[in-house]
Design a protein that fits this description.
- By secondary structure, this protein is α+β, with helices and mostly antiparallel strands.
- It is built from five helices and six strands.
- The protein has helices at residues 22-28, 37-46, 56-67, 90-104, 136-144, and strands at 5-8, 14-16, 71-76, 80-85, 119-124, 129-133.
- It is globular.
- The chain starts with a strand and ends in a 14-residue tail after the last helix.
Length: 158
């Protein structure tokens, strides 16, 4: 895969963002994300924003996905791989590690770059970073061996 942005579903499915930006992907495939177009239109109207604009409505829609267990992923030009999520659950931990393993094996690449040499940051929304390292391997080590904060109990049931 050569995309620069992804979503990881609550079940671990990796969805490349092929429509431009994360919100464009959500709008073009609302059923994939368990959303209805009419609800998204209402959210944009409530914020008095143009449908698809990257503002408060978009933030609200993506925050709703985070609450449902979705993970937002993007490779940045500064050679950083960023994961954003609502809660660092056992499921999220597993899905992030699976994604990083695909990057490590060069099965997921940012454009034509070798993502294995990117820095990685894992952020819980509105919190300090869960894990940060100068490499994919370093982040995998942090998450696997408990150097990152413990996962929430609620997710252990999944």
């Amino acid at each position: 895969m050569l995309e620069y942005a992804y979503f990881i579903s609550p079940r671990g499915k990796i969805i490349p963002v092929t429509r431009g930006k994360h919100i464009d992907q959500i709008i073009s495939e609302p059923i994939t994300f368990g959303l209805l177009v009419k609800d998204m239109v209402s959210t944009y109207k409530r914020h008095n924003e143009t449908f698809g604009h990257e503002g408060f409505a978009r933030d609200e829609i993506i925050a709703g996905l985070f609450r449902k267990g979705w993970v937002r992923v993007r490779f940045e030009e500064r050679r950083t791989l960023i994961f954003q999520l609502g809660r660092f659950t056992m499921g999220a931990k597993k899905h992030i590690l699976s994604f990083l393993e695909l990057v490590q094996a060069s099965k997921i690449k940012p454009g034509n770059n070798d993502g294995r040499h990117f820095s990685v940051a894992v952020y819980q929304v509105r919190e300090s970073p869960i894990a940060e390292a100068g490499s994919v391997k370093g982040t995998m080590r942090q998450i696997k061996y408990g150097l990152a904060p413990a996962c929430t109990e609620q997710s252990r049931e999944r």
